[in-house]
Amino acid sequence: MTILHSKEKLTLASELIYEIKVKDAMHRDVISFSPDATFREIQLSLKKNRISGVPILDGNKNILGIVSIDNVMTALDEDYVNDKVKNYMTKEVITIPQNYSLVSAIKKFEHYKFGRLPVAKNARSNEIIGILTMGDILNYLLVSIQAIAEKAEKKEADNDNVSTEMARQTTKKRMRFEVNKADFDNAGRVASIVRNYLQKLKIEKQILRKIAIVCYEVEMNISIHSLGGSITVETEPSEVIITAVDYGPGIPDIDEAMKPGFTTASEQIRALGFGAGMGLPNIKKCADYLELESSMETGTILKATIRLGG
Amino acid sequence: MKIQDIVAILDAEVLTGEGYLNQEIEEFAASDMLSDVLALTKDNFLLLTGLTSQQVVRTAEIAGGIGVVFVRGKTPEPEAIGLARSHHIPLLMTSFLTFEASRAIVEAINKKETK
């Protein structure tokens, strides 16, 4: 079973296989037989249910053995297909406890070359509560990855609702957003909401773009460099004013910080594609008017004004 | 040139946004530095990148990008796909390197112009 190792970039899948438990991915509707069943009965069941093996259980669901398609073929070959399975079935059964992670299951599949693993209630129990195949694992992984994408989509829809609500309240011209320190997953949320909102006010595309970029850059600056802060966006008939305030620690040398290429960002930030030392110069380029004040005691205040048309 | 043409030129897989491939590309950008992408001056650009984080899609959305191509067969984070679906931004994946992809696009543009 090399499927999970075949692609270079599967870090997410490898994280998930440690997180997900066997009980999450297994199927619970176990098709099983008693030791008094014949190979013929099992053969028909395998065909009907399109499976390749069944566990043999006693009255209390404790596992006694397993009959796979190989056992059935041997029975057909050697002409005991109408006999009971109890004397022929594989008795050394490997099971996996339900609270183990998928990693253990995958290791077992690789080691024993089985198509399926009966799932036991716990490590000391023989009671079978489910069956796990590599197909089940793959399915569950795909569903989990899909769910992450859907969650992000849902979050965006919520952002859109925020901007729609703002556009509806025509009297409210001032929006304030909190920005947390190092919250990169949400970085860009403010810019996205503001962009959406202004789009609904039918602001010209090039100006909209400038405003969104300023919002995004200040948002990144607050989450990368400060202890947290807030962004206020005021919409006037002739201009939009973006004010970013943070709680420190402040910029030691503003002139240096304004130089294109000057950066104090960490490797981690640079790996995300930011921290090129272009943030402040880029804000300056987009804004029609820029004020920047910083104190090592109280933090930084940035005020960017963008004129609407003309 | 449309995004649809890029799919053929780069032998790219469309990860999401099949319904939005008919948009006209006004500018191309190839960068692993999102700050540089934000400094572009034109809307309606196609971004080629080796980054895979959701911020790539966020940056394209904010700066007015209409599509993203992930080079070297890199797959984006699932969150990036969710974000792209919300904003109708097609995501493409190609096995070409950034340089090869850029060259293939330039060659296709030149070929189109001499016709």
List keywords for this structure.
heterodimer; A: 310 residues; alpha+beta; 3-stranded mixed β-sheet; 11 helices; 42% helix; disordered N terminus; B: 115 residues; alpha/beta; 5-stranded mixed β-sheet; 19% strand
Report on the structure:
The complex is a heterodimer of chains A (310) and B (115). Chain A has 11 helices and 10 strands. Chain A has 310 residues and is α+β, with helices and mostly antiparallel strands. In chain A, the strands form 3 sheets. Chain A has a 5-stranded antiparallel beta sheet, with helices on one face. In chain A, strands 3-4-5 form a 3-stranded mixed beta sheet. Chain B is α/β, with parallel strands linked by helices. Helices cover 42% and strands 19% of the residues of chain B. Chain B is built from 5 helices and 5 strands; from the N terminus they run H-E-E-H-E-H-E-H-E-H. Chain B has helices at 3-9, 34-38, 54-63, 78-86, 98-114, and strands spanning 13-16, 27-30, 45-49, 65-70, 91-93. A 5-stranded mixed beta sheet of chain B has the order 1-5-4-3-2, with helices on both faces. In chain B, helix 3 (54-63) packs parallel to helix 4 (78-86). The longest helix of chain B is centred in the last third of the chain and has 17 residues, at 98-114. Chain B is globular. The two termini of chain B are 14 Å apart. The chains are: A alpha+beta (310), B alpha/beta (115).
